[in-house]
């Protein structure tokens, strides 16, 4: 079931991105579309670099105080996937990448991810074991 969904996404997302490129190319021109693709990639690289450094500093501070940096690890994961999506060409992927990179929207995603992980741990899908 999950593999079929993943394969479907591999077909549908590129098709939607190509359609978006063609639509925007007709609307604003192909050179503007190419410029926007490059600009979102550069913006993503710069913003993720800035947010990543801040998250790293917060994680160091948490560890120095003797706490586990769980929030910072969730931020790092979201920033990593957001950066990948922002660097890949495509406007739909850029929107999803921005949702993962911007701090106020990232917090909503983290909350949903925590609920999902808690539910999966309750069902036995995720096994947590101390060694």
Radius of gyration: 18 Å
Helical content stands at: over 70%
Taken from the alpha-carbon principal axes, the silhouette is flat
Task: Please provide the count of β strands.
Answer: 0
> How much β-strand is present in the residues?
under 5%
Give the CA-CA distance, first to last residue.
Answer: 32 Å
How would you describe this protein?
The protein is flat, with a radius of gyration of 18 Å. α1 packs across α2. It is mainly alpha-helical. Helices cover 85% and strands 0% of the residues. The model has no long low-confidence stretch (mean pLDDT 83). It has one domain. The longest helix has 35 residues. It contains 5 helices and no strands.
């Amino acid at each position: 079931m999950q593999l079929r969904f993943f394969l479907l996404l591999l077909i549908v997302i590129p098709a939607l991105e190509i359609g978006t490129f063609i639509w925007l190319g007709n609307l604003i021109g192909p050179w503007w579309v190419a410029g926007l693709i490059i600009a979102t990639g550069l913006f993503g690289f710069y913003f993720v670099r800035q947010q990543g450094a801040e998250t790293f500093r917060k994680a160091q501070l948490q560890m120095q105080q003797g706490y586990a940096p769980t929030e910072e690890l969730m931020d790092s994961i979201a920033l990593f996937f957001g950066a990948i999506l922002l660097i890949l060409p495509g406007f739909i992927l850029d929107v999803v990448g921005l949702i993962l990179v911007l701090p106020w929207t990232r917090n909503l995603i983290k909350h949903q991810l925590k609920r999902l992980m808690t539910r999966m741990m309750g069902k036995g899908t995720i096994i947590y074991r101390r060694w």
